Amino acid sequence: MHSAMDSLAVAVFHLAHAQYPAVAPFHPAEVYPECADMPHLSESNHVYAAVRECFRLAGLDKDRYGTPQWNPLKELIRPGETVLLKPNFVKESHPTDPNGWQYVITHGSIIRAVADYVFMALSGTGTVIVADGPQTDSSFEKISELTGLPELAAFYASVGYDFKVFDLRKEEWESRKGVVVARRPRDGDPFGYVAFDLKECSEFLTHAGGGHYYGADYDSDEVNYHHTDGRHEYLIAGVAVNADVIFSLPKLKTHKKAGVTASLKNLVGINGDKNWLPHHTEGKPEQGGDERPVVAFKSGAERNLVAVFRKLSLRVPVIGPLIHMLARKLGEKLFGGGENIVRSGNWWGNDTVWRMCLDLNKIALYGINDGTLGENVRRHYSLIDGIIAGEGSGPLNPSPKSAGLICFGVNPAAVDAVGAVLMGFDPYKIPIIRQSFLCKTFPIIRGSLADVYIVSNDSALSGPIVKTTMPSQLCFKPHFGWVGHIEK
Q1: Distance of CA 128 to the CA centre of its chain
Q2: Residue 314 to residue 222: CA distance in whole angstroms
Q3: Torsion angle in degrees (nearest 10) through CA of 136, 214, 436, 250
Q4: What are the sequence ranges of the domains in the chain?
Q5: Which end of the chain is more exposed for a tag (fewer CB within 10 A), N or C?
Q6: Which helix (H) or strand (E) holds 238?
Q7: What phi, psi does 387 have (nearest 5°)?
Q8: Is 456 helix (H, G, I), strand (E, B) or coil?
Q9: Are 350 and 285 within 8 A, CB to CB?
Q10: Comparing 49-58, 258-267, 338-347, 420-429, which segment has the lowest mean pLDDT?
Q11: Could you say which DSSP state residue 63 is in?
């Protein structure tokens, strides 16, 4: 399906001091002509207005804007299709702020506003599915409660719309003091899971890290099995490969391994097993490793000890995790904590995680439910939640950034490039963004990074991103491992 919107254009709505509405299911606060029969809030709803304005700025169905017939997503979504709304539901809590979830995960009001216009395009004959695979030691039930998903589901059921919510994980962990102490099975994706092997189409093709990758669990043998001997395998949730459209709804944040996390990084959540995903490569930089800038004797000893205690946790129930917790506590005193020491690929030199993320984006666009890749399989759109964003120690321990931003586009790579610029960063210095424009096999975007441009209600932001200079109040503080390397 072709859209009147240029894939290199990104619509940006900026409203300083914008806030989220507090009451689910987050009805609009104004009577808009296209949804005049909908219930309305007595309080303000900056988010609904911002999402609507982004679609207008994008020029979608522009001839009918302001009339009851305006249907902005009709050029992007067909009646009867299945649309996956993919938020960032990484974790239900912030380590220090009880209200910090608002700048860690996608707010429910974003989901509501987008879902309304998706249902409008579906003309009452399709399905909207909200799904994600949060960090394994997160509570999907608590995330659902915070984001108002039960209220959203009840509202859509009351008007006869097919709205579903899925936790895509096969397993949920319980962690204490950073150590996994229990693992419980989950129902997982009702569509099942599909294994893909990208082989020579993978962005890991020229990477020499096989055998030294570290994934998301204590057993690194599994991730290395899936990424050696020419294999580059991923286990993808069936809901993603059976959807007609993936509509990413990420949170705008800094990220310790990728520099920024937005649309491209958001697809980590469509996996059935995150331990198939290389997150960094162990070893010294001169030998192809990217775990830290310098691997000296002390840091090498730390890595070897960590490996011992991780295996102990896996193999010895109860006692193993307890010893692991004690070792972590002593280790922080001896080697330093994660908030001030670069380790585990948490720096600008990580040459692993961007490759994994771009592989996932290829599957999102081209993946068929038989595990192969084809042409024109699926569309992937993006709308970023930057109302209250996260800076500094993202993605799990950021500081709040009241940016008041919503960004929308029909190509996630372009949207992320704009997101980085709005944060005060140079997208050419962020591998996950720069390389997304350079994929030769199964391209993620067609066009040049230099040609991406912004259409905004804020004239100071509009124009080519290469000429955009951000006001100081919008510039984000990077993760400490990226300071001095990605700023414009």
Answers
A1: 18
A2: 13
A3: 20
A4: 9-199+229-276+347-474
A5: N
A6: helix 238-241
A7: -60, -60
A8: strand
A9: no
A10: 338-347
A11: G
